[in-house]
């Protein structure tokens, strides 16, 4: 059977888009990728693809159409964790989710903690000027959920795609130490040293293994992501100053 078309609407700096890119590549799927300019979102994107105006979003199936004119009969979906499950379900032979139901449950629990606990404290730290410790505590909780070797569920799964894109962006942001974060001088370096120290030894080893996978390497250009974050942060600072 011919695989129905898949179009992923994504933005390079978005960790959520990046996770879906990784899952699609890990599954060896042919897909079309459309880069959405979030500063200048096309009207058709909001009207016809994702009314929430966010990336990632995905269209599946339907008649042939260019990404900027999505066909009416394709299925439109969004939310990175939903899309990760979708890719795993569409391509079961790629084993993006383990077969054992208890291992699948581990994957889902890890993704739940990531979404409901880690992301709020991550944003609070790097955009809200809040202390790093709550973020580090949740990261430790996630580290404790890892087996002694290998990935979240032993074999690679969508849970690994979900977290690696956050871990690498966290490093970029800490290295940037941009004024938008509202940190005192040296905070980025201090947190980086903690992440690279004994407290997070297992997480760092896990991160290195994930960074070594071909699907990750093919989708991550650290210098380019750092540039994008820097211009985003500069824009936020400019806007904040205009509002004062
Ligand atoms: N919960 C969503 C979050 C997606 C999200 O926040 N996307 C950001 C980019 S990282 C976005 O599209 N922002 C544009 C906007 O909200 O206008 C997911 O996991 O897919």
UniProtKB/TrEMBL annotation:
Q: Which Gene3D superfamilies match?
A: 1.20.1050.10, Glutaredoxin (3.40.30.10)
The record's annotation in SUPFAM superfamilies points to:
GST C-terminal domain-like, Thioredoxin-like
Organism domain of life: Eukaryota
List the Pfam families hit by this protein, alphabetically. Answer: GST_N_3
A GO cellular component entry from the record = cytoplasm
Q: What InterPro entries does the database record attribute to this sequence? A: Glutathione-S-Trfase_C_sf, Glutathione_S-Trfase, Glutathione_S-Trfase_N, GST_Omega/HSP26, Thioredoxin-like_sf
The residues covered by the GST N-terminal domain are 4-95
Q: What protein is this chain from?
A: GST N-terminal domain-containing protein
């Amino acid at each position: 059977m011919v695989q129905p078309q898949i179009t992923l609407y994504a933005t390079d700096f978005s960790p959520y888009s990046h996770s879906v890119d990784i899952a699609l590549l890990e599954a060896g799927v042919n897909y079309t990728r459309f880069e959405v300019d979030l500063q200048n979102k096309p009207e058709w994107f909001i009207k016809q693809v994702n009314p929430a105006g966010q990336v990632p979003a995905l269209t599946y199936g339907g008649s042939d159409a260019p990404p900027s004119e999505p066909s009416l009969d394709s299925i439109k979906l969004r939310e990175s964790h939903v899309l990760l499950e979708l890719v795993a379900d569409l391509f079961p032979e790629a084993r993006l989710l383990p077969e054992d139901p208890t291992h699948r449950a581990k994957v889902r629990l890890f993704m739940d903690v990531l979404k409901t606990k880690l992301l709020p404290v991550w944003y609070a730290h790097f955009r809200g000027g809040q202390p790093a410790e709550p973020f580090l505590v949740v990261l430790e909780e996630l580290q404790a959920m890892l087996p002694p070797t290998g990935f979240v569920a032993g074999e690679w799964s969508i849970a690994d795609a979900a977290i690696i894109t956050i871990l690498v962006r966290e490093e970029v942001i800490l290295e940037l130490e941009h004024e938008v974060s509202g940190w005192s001088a040296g905070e980025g370096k201090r947190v980086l040293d903690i992440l690279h120290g004994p407290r997070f030894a297992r997480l760092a080893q896990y991160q290195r293994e994930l960074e070594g996978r071909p699907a990750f390497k093919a989708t991550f250009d650290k210098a380019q992501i750092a540039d994008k974050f820097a211009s985003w942060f500069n824009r936020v600072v400019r806007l904040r100053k205009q509002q004062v």
